[in-house]
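User: I'll paste a sequence; please echo it back and then give the predicted structure.

Assistant: Echoing your sequence first, then the prediction.
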Amino acid sequence: MKIRTLIVDDEPLALERLGTLLREDPEIEIVGECTNGLEALSAIKAEAPDLIFLDVQMPELDGFGVVAALSNAKMPTIIFVTAYDKFALRAFEVHALDYLLKPFDRERFQKSLRRAIDQIKRNESDELSQRLSSLIAELKPEAKPLDRLAVKVDGRVLLVRLEEIDWIEAADNYVSLHVGNESHLHRETMSALEAKLAPSQFIRISRSIIVNVEKIKELQPMFHGDYVVILSNGTRLNLSRNYRENLNHLLGKSV
């Protein structure tokens, strides 16, 4: 029986190289190639791979986030692909978890692959799960609450305090931070930023808009369950009925 393998890396060249090397091994069957952590979670659920080559640093959801989301599931064998420095790599070694340091050569790849195959054949998923949990605890301590964002303005870096932001608007791979009469582009996706914001301070009212709760002055009902959110500065924003539950949860009652 072939070993079902998933590749996850946001760098196209790394994804291609891993695929090329894996296809040379007759014991391997590639069941998917993903470019971010969210795609990876879907693929893992659909394909139940035995082995994952998992990039650590990715947008939206990083490799550790993927592992954390799998904590209650059967854990596949994982080879981390990373550009971490030697101090962080020591943690992988201490917890007996394999990794490929970019850029890696064929010999190092083959060594990691043979170790993974042996581990799969010994069926050590429970022990692996414990080691992964310990690694994440060591490398990802509790993050400090986010209180400001750094944005580039005319070659300068401006620190924008979250409490000063009125609302946030999606702009492809950026977000637009609306602060009073000004707006600033910040390089981060809407979903990634939303995950960092305190839900008691910011709520998402549509696919493209997040609002600072303290800036909301009034809600006006519209048709079909939609609302207009009016901010203290007079800005009018549409609250989609699909996101109304966010506001209900915050207010403790239905609107």
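The mean pLDDT is 84. The radius of gyration is 22 Å.
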